[in-house]
Design goal:
- The structure is a single chain.
- By secondary structure, this protein is of the alpha/beta class.
- The chain has five domains: about 1-45 and about 150-175, Orthogonal Bundle (DNA polymerase, domain 1); about 50-145, OB fold (Dihydrolipoamide Acetyltransferase, E2P) (Beta Barrel); about 175-235 and about 665-684, no CATH class; about 250-435, Rossmann fold, CATH 3.40.50.300; about 445-600, Rossmann fold (3-Layer(aba) Sandwich), CATH 3.40.50.
- It is built from 24 helices and 21 strands.
- A seven-stranded parallel beta sheet has the order 11-12-10-13-14-9-15, with helices on both faces. Strands 16-21-20-17-19-18 form a six-stranded parallel beta sheet, with helices on both faces.
- Helix 13 (about 350-360) links the parallel strand 11 (about 340) and strand 12 (about 365-370).
- Helix 5 packs antiparallel against helix 7 (about 195-200), helix 10 (about 260-275) runs parallel beside helix 11 and helix 20 (about 590-600) runs antiparallel to helix 21 (about 605-615).
- The longest helix is centred in the N-terminal third of the chain and has 32 residues, at about 205-235.
- Bound molecules: adenosine-5'-diphosphate (ADP) and magnesium ion.
- Adenosine-5'-diphosphate binds near residues 295 and 543.
């Protein structure tokens, strides 16, 4: 059989695998012989360490070479519980081996027989080796080696998996084609495919194992990046309508109520020079909360409008969309540029009118939620699409955009800081800009993690700040916006605060289940200063801008992720006044306290994201799935950053030489890319 056939053949073709085992393999996602080879061990047991009995230390797991020096003793403790013991010696000392319920030992453990024993050592009350595996010298399969530990499902054992893998390896021996060309393997010192499979499943040493693992990590990242970079290549060949420099831009910038920071100027220049091109811009702007991303979007939209083209700004929530609408409208309407708001919850009539103004081109600047991309929306000449606070930008999302305009320029703005190298991989086909500077005069938001005992003092503090003319947010956690119970608690809590704690203040509440028009009303009143204390769920997490608010109180702060707390905190400290963030921590766990301490210590979103990552682990913080990338089997986007740097180089070099991967020697690469991305991307 050819290698290709065998690897893609059903797992039942493997020796010893019948219907029953096959379905056990299926339940692990292993359908073919090739899947089996890629079912890497989740861990390894190093059974290569040999010790003399005299050197054995408590709790270590080791191999000893010893002779049985006393007859096997049987001790029936109770029904179904028999303990077997025997003394072993190696000339340096004596140790007792202990097994439970192993009847066949009788035939094997005989005085004078020599074995390699592998097990965990105990030194008190006496020197023991617990339930050791033992094998004759020279016939070792389980000892003296690094032994893989596979993820299992019922019906499978480590032994079955190892034997099945061995069978596939033996049958494919000498026929496996390496998807990584030899030139690249040489250059980056990568193990060839066959050796890599052997070593990852049956390592002969820790060093060889590492070499093999490195190869597979490299391979995975290499192909993922190659696919993403090819998408980018394709985009470069797409044609877009340029948005030309406009003479009015300098005056527009001068007319703003503040001077742009250096970082804002730099990023704006990058954007304006992108959109001048006849290939579509595809840029990600990263900037911490409050770094001033909105105005950058506004400038780009201004340029589009001056070229007579429509632009759209998409926000993740209706509140934020409404707020962007307000600020853009106040900037643009005096200049005769019509701004339109489109959200899912508008009345049918209002929506119909908005849709018609969008279609006939009367509205030039359009703001909305993802409703902007629903089928009914027809644009007149959409040429710039901006997505705000889009944390979950998938590789396929651009397709939505390009369905709406010819090939509009796209810009994504986010406050979720991810390391630049990583952004490059995840957003592979995006250019990345960073607004790495806050507007001048911003003060550190003082952050206080507190317990219940501080509640009275915090309420008093809120009263004092309100008396000084400021406003406060109180955020209650709502894990799911639909949780009725929590929902009730927000409204009830607001009521209690209003009736009992702050009878003289104006208290309102806001949650995700309210009608959009209600939410708007509340936000408008809050922004206007009519509401002193706003009790809200995390719907206000992103983007909302009310500079007069100076206190952010978070209830049950331990239930929020650090980056989320940072977002919440970013709702205050947006003006010139000193701002405070109070985190009520109802958890006594040190883990929770540690997290609160991070918030207290730093205002830097980047450090917070890293801590979040460290404390929660990359899985939760950053699933690859939500980005539309293929799931990674062995590589880790965070811990393998150094490999990533190498694969980036390798992919660049490859595509510089052969941008469409049409050279014969690169066909295996192209085939592999198609295979990986078959569900995600269609290459034409
Ligand atoms: P974010 O990056 O979090 O979206 P915003 O765009 O909402 O930040 O800006 C935060 C606040 O800072 C707004 O009130 C905005 O008007 C103000 N701002 C933006 N840029 C500057 C600047 N260069 N100087 C002073 N204030 C600025
Ligand atoms: Mg914003």
């Amino acid at each position: 059989m050819k290698e290709h056939d065998l690897l893609s053949s059903d797992i039942r073709f493997v020796k010893g695998v019948g219907e029953k085992r096959a379905s056990a393999f299926y339940s692990l996602g292993i359908h073919t012989a090739g899947d089996l080879l890629s079912h890497y061990p989740r861990a390894y047991e190093d059974r290569t360490v040999y010790k003399k009995i005299i050197e054995c230390e408590h709790d270590e797991t080791v191999c000893i070479r010893a002779t049985v020096s006393s007859a096997l003793r049987k001790n029936v403790i109770r029904k179904n519980m028999t303990i077997y013991t025997a003394k072993l010696s190696d000339g340096t000392g004596v140790i007792e081996a202990v097994w439970f319920n192993m009847r066949f030992l009788d035939n094997q453990i005989k005085v004078g027989s020599e074995f390699i024993f592998y097990g965990k050592i105990q030194t008190s009350p006496k020197k023991r080796i617990q339930t050791p595996i033992f094998e004759r010298i020279g016939a070792q399969k389980q000892t003296g080696r690094i032994v893989p530990v596979y993820p299992l499902s019922s019906g499978l054992t480590q032994k079955i998996i190892s034997a099945s893998v061995a069978d596939v390896l033996n049958r494919t021996c000498g026929t496996l084609k390496d998807p990584i060309p030899e030139t690249i393997r040489k250059k980056y010192n990568l193990c060839d495919i066959e050796k890599a499979y052997r070593q990852i499943h049956f390592p002969t040493s820790a060093k060889e194992l590492e070499y093999a693992r490195h190869r597979f990590i490299f391979e995975e990242l290499f192909f993922m990046q190659a696919a993403l970079f090819m998408l980018k290549g394709r985009r470069n060949k797409l044609s877009a309508i340029p948005i030309k420099d406009c003479n009015e831009m300098p005056d527009f910038i001068k007319s703003l109520p503040f001077a742009l920071t250096n970082a804002q100027n730099r990023v704006l220049t990058e954007i304006l020079s992108d959109i001048k091109n006849d290939t579509p811009m595809n840029r990600l702007v990263q900037g911490d909360v409050g770094s001033g991303k909105t105005i950058i979007a506004a400038c780009a939209m201004f340029a589009a409008a001056k070229s007579g083209m429509q632009s759209a700004l998409m926000a993740p929530t209706e509140i934020l969309a409404a707020q962007h609408y307000e600020s853009l409208n106040s900037l643009f309407s005096p200049l005769g540029i019509n701004v339109e708001l489109l959200t899912g919850s508008m009345t049918a009539k209002a929506k119909k009118e908005a849709l018609s103004r969008i279609k006939n081109g009367e509205s030039i600047v359009i703001v909305g939620t993802h409703a902007l991309f629903s089928e009914q929306v027809e644009f007149n000449n959409l040429n710039l699409v901006i997505t705000d606070e889009q944390h979950r930008f998938g590789v396929n999302q651009r397709k939505l955009f390009s369905d709406k305009g010819a090939n509009p320029h796209t810009l994504v703005m986010t406050a979720t800081p991810i390391p630049r190298t990583l952004a490059l991989v995840v957003y592979g086909d995006l250019e990345v800009s960073a607004i790495d500077e806050l507007p001048p005069g911003r003060q550190k938001i003082d952050t206080f993690p507190v317990g219940e005992n501080m509640r009275e003092r915090i309420y008093a503090f809120i009263k004092k700040e309100v008396a000084a003319g400021h406003q406060a947010y109180i955020v209650c956690p709502l894990v799911e916006e639909s949780e009725q119970l929590d929902l009730k608690s927000v409204t009830e809590y607001a009521q209690t605060l209003s009736d009992e704690i702050f009878p003289d203040l104006s208290v309102a509440f806001l949650h995700g289940k309210m009608k959009a028009s209600q939410k708007d009303t509340v936000m408008t009143h809050f922004a206007a200063g009519d509401i002193d204390v706003l009790v809200a769920t995390s719907v206000i997490e992103v983007g909302v801008n009310v500079p007069n608010a100076t206190i952010m109180v978070v209830e049950n702060a331990e239930r929020f992720g650090l980056s989320q707390l940072h977002q919440l905190r970013g709702r205050v400290g947006r003006g010139k006044d000193k701002a405070y963030c109070i985190l009520f921590n109802q958890s006594k766990q040190t883990y929770a306290q540690e997290r609160m301490e991070v918030m207290k210590r730093t205002n830097d979103g980047f450090i917070i994201a890293e801590k979040d990552l460290e404390l929660r682990g990359p899985g939760e913080f950053f699933g690859t799935r939500q980005h539309g990338l293929p799931p990674l089997n062995i590589a880790n986007l965070y811990s393998d950053l150094d490999v990533l740097t190498e694969t980036t180089k390798a992919v660049r070099a490859l595509l510089d030489e052969d941008p469409t991967l049409s050279l014969p020697q690169n066909q295996p690469i192209l085939a592999k890319i198609r295979e990986i991305f078959k569900q995600n991307i269609t290459f034409s």
